[in-house]
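Write out a sequence, fold above all:
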Amino acid sequence: MTDSFDIAVIGGGNAALCAAITAAEAGARVLILEAAPKPYRGGNSRHTRNFRCMHSRPLGPLTDSYSEQEYFDDLIKVTGGKTNENLARLAIRGSEECLPWMEERGVRFQPSLSGTLSLSRTNAFFLGGGKGLVNAYYRTAAALGIEVRYEAPVTHLDVEDGKINGIEFTQNGTTHRVSPKAVVVASGGFQADTDWLARAWGPAAKNFLIRGTPYNRGVVLADLLEQGVEQVGDPTQCHAVAIDGRAPKFDGGIVTRLDCVPFSIVVNKDAERFYDEGEDVWPKRYAIWGRLVAAQPEQVGYVIIDAKSLELFMPSVFPPIKADTLEDLAGKLNLPADRLCATVEEFNAACGDTSAFHPTELDSVATSGLTPPKTNWARPITEAPFYGYTLRTGVTFTYLGLKVNENAQCSIGNRPMSNLWAAGETMAGSILGQGYLAGFGMTIGTVFGRIAGREAVAHAN
C-alpha cells in the first residue's frame, strides 16, 4: 500500500468526508481510515442536526439574513472572547458557500424544528439528521472512487523533519503502513478516553457521560502532540451540555439532550438552585450547563417544572418523572422534600407579572430579589402534576487539539509541516476557547475540511 494513495484522511465524520471529497474531485487518490465499524461510521457527525450558516439573503431553508458580524458577535458571547478571530471569521465567511456545496453532494435540508430552538434564520437542519448527511457524503465518496477502510484505527504517524513519512493502522488484527503524499487528520477529540478526561478534570470526570462515538479516544492527537506537533486549547474545555441522566455512557446522541431548562428551576442534590436558568435563548446558552452541573455535588442536577411548561420544549427520548405533589416528586428524585418545597416557594414568591411571557424570545419576565435570579421566563411552579429530570454532564467533544493556520496546516517548532493538515473537532480548539454555539462545530468541520482537502491535493500535485 506504500505508494497507492496521494492523500490519507484519518477519521470518517463530516470534516474527514469534506476533505476527502474535495481532494478526490481534484483528481487525488484518497484513502479514508475510519476506526469505527461501518454501521457506526461518521463519528459525532452521526448525532448532529444542523449547520450554522452566514447568509446575506434567504438561502435554502434559511430565512431572512445572518451577517458575518452578527454571527461573530454570537460566537463572542459564548466564548467570552476566547477565540482566534482570524480563523473564526474564516469559518463564518466560508459557511455561506458551503450550503449549496453540500446540496450538490447529496445533503438535503428541512425547515427548522419547532420548540425552543428558534433557529430558522441561523441554522440549516439536515433532512435525516447527521446520519443522513454522513450517508450522502459516503455515497458521493464511493462514486468518486475514494477507498474507505473501516475498523482501521490509526496507531502511529511517523513524524520526521516536519513531515509525515508514514501512517500505521491496524485492521483485522494486522498492522499496515501507508505512505501518502499528504495527510489530513480529522479524527476528533479525546473525550471517549475517560482516563484522559479524569487527568484533566479530576475524578469528577468519571461521572461524565459521552454524548457521541466511543471511538474518539484521542490516539492520533496524543501521538502527534508527543512528537512535538503544536497544540492549542485547554484540556478542561469542551463542548459539554446537560443531558438526561438516564442516557447511556456513550453514543446517546442528540435525543438525550434536554431543552427544558429555560422553563424550569434547576437544583442540585441539596435542592438548592445554583444558576440563572433564563440567562439567554437556549441555542446560545445550553452548552454552559454541562460545566455548571459538573461543578455540583456528585455532578448531578435536577430540573423541576410544572404542567403548564411541559409542552414548551422538545422532549427527551426518556419521559419525565411525574408526581402529583412536589413532596412526591422529591421522593422520586431522592431530593430532600422540605428543602425542595422551600426552594420552589422562594422562587414562586420572587416571580412577578407573567403576562409578557414568550417562550421563544427573551421576555424579561424575571424574578425580583432572588439569588441567583432568573432573568427570563420566570413563572411560578404551581400547576400539578409536577415533573422532573435528572441532569448529567454530557461531553460532545474536547477542545485540546492541533493548532492550525488559515490553510488548516499543522506546525511543529513554529514552522508549518509540509504535508499535515487538520480539520473538525481535532482542531476546533483553534477557534473555540470555551463555550459553544449551536451548529458551529459542523461549520468548522465543513469549512476547514474543504480547506484541508484543497491544500492537501495542491501539495500532492
